[in-house]
Amino acid sequence: MNKPRVVVEPPDSRGLRQVSTGGKPVGSAWSLQGLRKVLSRLGYPEDLDVEDRSSISWLGGDSGTWPDRTWRRRSTIALMMAGLLGSMALLVVVGIPDAIGALTFAGRVTGFLFAFAGVAQGVAALAALDYWGKRQLKLSGAVILLGAFIALATNGLLLFMWLQEREYTPYVLTYLPLWCWSLWALRLLVREKAWRGVPHPKQFAAGVTATTLLAAANLAYSALYQPTSAPVLFDLNVKFGTPQLDIERPIIHVPVTFRARNSGQIPAYITSDGYGIYGVSAKHSSDGSGLLEWRKMMDATSDGSKVGRYVKSPTRETISAARFYGPGNWLEPGEQYTQERVIQVPKSAKYDTLEADLTLTLMRKDRGRIDEEFASPHYSWHKSDRQFYCPPVECVDQIINRGRVLHNNNIINVTRQPRYVISYYGWTGSNAELQSYVLSYEPRDVLSFSEEMAEEDKRERKRYGVAEAKAMAAVPFAQLLRANEK
């Protein structure tokens, strides 16, 4: 057999021994069995005497020097891949929804960066097989180091955001252990100087740092700055039209137009809405003593503007009331919704004025999304709807809407509990009552009110930019009568 002499190099730090012939590497082996496989590929007989110095030259040890700890090396590979793949799955789950459907461009960029970072960790998991294997790729160590750094930064960010509220979410059971894992992985990789083989290590580190800063800046912009920099602006308008006298009956038909327009740059949900049309009458006070009743008026209406010097004991009757656009609907910037109503008022009615008002409670759409369930009403008088049913003798009849609120940023969704929005439209017999709450918990009894709900709502309203808008209009009833007499 005329074959070149085989040289078995000394074991490296992991126990792997390189095999060469004629000064050229031809393979590597972890054990004597692995060496025989290399020799077999080179055409040497399977029963070759490895102690024959004329065939094999041993450097840094003999045929019994195989320091590889297989179980330890494979355990390291398994643990490294498990952490990288787990972090990859988490980042993809967090990033994809924002990358596809975030409401802002910055939010989509942040989602894309998270998803891309997840893909990079998937590549790093594959590189772990090579790095703790035969290291056929020079950059495998650097790729794993990058993956571990991404895991430390992203899971550290998620953990930091969770610590701000410390609300339980199942995701905390992933990014908390993954953050601890990333510390272990980085310590191991730094100890082994995994960056060796990178052509320009300083430029590599600068690129990683720049990418991290870009992701942090996009997150801060989309989650903090942008949702507070532009206000929600709505124009509400209520207008009485030209009345018409019924040709057959002594009734006046009065058109009323209600309009809401989003004049700002931020889309907004309607969480509660309603309009009312009222007939107002009062006794005449020729002696000017009407102002003496201001205390009585404040107790009755909480509105001092209703006090007048020459009127006493005003009364207000509801002519018509209903919801306007409906909870769960929203208006984009520049969009408007108009509703026209025609009410019938007896010509003989003893009203002094007709009044109409429109009230909307709004929630910024760039801070959260309300699910479709919120648009479905529940009626407190329906026995079939057990959770919302309340006997009329115990409760005021109410229309209830309830749904979940998802945060505007999926990064926040995995570090916070879901929020709930609940809206009430109740009828007291004289006017409609509108209420809406945003809560960090799902109320068990949706028909009971408490100070806890009020305090919780106050805090969450600031978080989601909840605000109320109202418009009113009034017309003298005598003017309507004269318009029909001409």
From TrEMBL:
Keyword presence, Transmembrane: yes
Keywords: Membrane, Transmembrane, Transmembrane helix
Regions that span the bilayer: 77-97, 109-129, 141-162, 168-190, 202-224
Renumbered residue ranges of the record's region Disordered: 1-24
Record-given protein name: Uncharacterized protein
Natural source organism: Streptomyces xantholiticus
Lineage: Bacteria, Bacillati, Actinomycetota, Actinomycetes, Kitasatosporales
